[in-house]
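From the shared-data thread, chain only:
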Amino acid sequence: KVVLMDVTPLSLGIEVYGGAFSRVVPRNTSIPASISQEFTNVQDYASTIEVKIYQGEREMAADNALLGNLELMIEPKRKGESRITVKFDIDANGILHVAARDAASGQEQKVQINARGGLSEDQIKQMLTDASANAANDRHKLELAHLLVRAEEKLAVLGTGLTLGGKAVAEDVRKEVASAMQEVRAAMTVRSVEALRAGLNRLNNAGSRMGAWGNPTNVVAPPPSAATATPPPPPPPSSASASPPSK
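Structure, as tokens:
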């Protein structure tokens, strides 16, 4: 006896910082289903995050089908300290319920969506065909997105270290770090994977010579005023304001 079960025809997930598609419910998951993942804030003292919900098999969110979005008020914390649980519930009728909850404040927002996104069978097949045809290019775009995020974070950390370290950072080290930072910025401008790899490798090596100032995590910046707590929109191509937490 063969039992046929309903499954999700395409993956469901959200956009994360850098524009990548983070799968929460993989394709062919049996329904009903309930799956949660934890994300975090990517900007200091943000008071809101936007959760954009997508369906598809492409590596970048913008290449998939946008199903809906919700905005969640969160307790302002330093980057990476917020714990935001995003839960996808799909009932037996294929209705998707997405909830986002901030652990610190207890604030929660929900949205209800048709899990198929109103797509026809032909449209779903076309999306799968497109994902297969663009797999190599999508992997390149995903690596570039990850490298751009890493570069942005590293530049911010070492820039802070140079400022706070002052004369504690030797002049030759300061010059080498500044030069490597300029190389990374140039690679970011041309959006070259190879140049970013090389630049980040050089920047990591230069930063390691800064000692404690290469990672000044012990320095706590004062929180901004309420009027400036909400972060500005992130740079293109991403409009995400959430990220998987650091391991």
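Residues 98 and 111 are 5 Å apart (CA to CA).
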